[in-house]
Each structure stands twice: as C-alpha cells, then as structure tokens.
Amino acid sequence: KQWYQRRVRGRESSSKSVEKVNQGSDRRIRIAWEAFNYCRDNLESSEFAKSHPWLRDRYLQVTHRDMSLQPLQTSKRIYDFVNEQLTDEVKDYIISITDDGNRTNS
Fold first, then answer.
1. CB of 81 within 8 A of CB of 59?
2. Which of the four pLDDT bands, split at 50, 70 and 90, describes residue 87?
3. In the chain, fewer beta carbons within 10 Å around the N or the C end?
4. Pick from 56, 84, 85, 86: which is nearest to 71 by CA?
5. What is the mean pLDDT of residues 86-100?
6. Angle at CA 25, nearest 5°, toward 20 and 29?
7. How many CA atoms lie within 13 A of 24 on its CB side?
8. What is d(CA 90, CA 84) in angstroms, rounded to the nearest whole number?
9. Global pTM?
C-alpha cells in the first residue's frame, strides 16, 4: 500500500489518487467486517439451535452450499421438514432454474 501511494504521489492529481486508494482500502475493510459479522451470526444461531433440544424438531439448517450443490435434494428436505409435498411442477421448476438435471447425485 505504501509503495503504491508513493508512486501515485509522483503523478498529477496525486491527492485524488491517494484518496481513491484509501477509499478502496476502507471499502475492503468494511466488506471484510460485514462478512465476519455475517459468519459469526450464523455460527451463533447454529450453536444456539444445537444447544437447545426443544429446537431440534423446529429448526432446519440449510446452507447456500446445500442449495447450490444439491438443489433438488435440499428442496425435498425443506418440504419434508414443513410436512409438504414437493410436487412434480416444483421439481421441474427447480431443475429448469438450476443445472440439477445434469447431475448424477440428484
């Protein structure tokens, strides 16, 4: 960062360039902090649900990874959890908006 700032100072409008570098750094820090808080909150929620037996049958943890890698199976788990039937129409829709129809593990 210092090398880049020193190099930028040698150009015209160096104060504007340095300001852009600092804004970019602030943005990355803000994004990292938001990601950290999001992950911490998810971990705390998950730990809370695991540590309270009365939630065992009332809580289903579904991750983005689950939905991305196995959308049809994950949707079936969700529907089963809420005691609903996953209809053929919904299955077809899930397959049409994902590439799940091309996977062998679905």
1. no
2. very high
3. N
4. 86
5. 90
6. 145
7. 9
8. 12
9. 0.57
Chain-centroid distance, C-alpha 87? 27
**pLDDT at residue 43 greater than cutoff 90:** no
**Is residue 27 scored above 50 in pLDDT?**
yes
Among 74, 100, 96, which residue's Cα sits nearest to residue 86? 74
Q: What is the residue whose two structure tokens read 């689950």?
A: 66
CB 9 within 8 A of CB 18: yes
In the chain, how many H helices and how many E strands? 5, 0
The pair of structure tokens assigned to 101 is: 């129809």
Q: Which of 77, 76, 73 is nearest to 61 (CA)?
A: 77
Which run of H or E residues covers position 100? none
Record the tokens describing residue 83, joined without a space. 């005691």
Q: pLDDT tens across 68-80, in order?
A: 999 999 999 999 9
With tokens 């065992």, the residue in question is 56
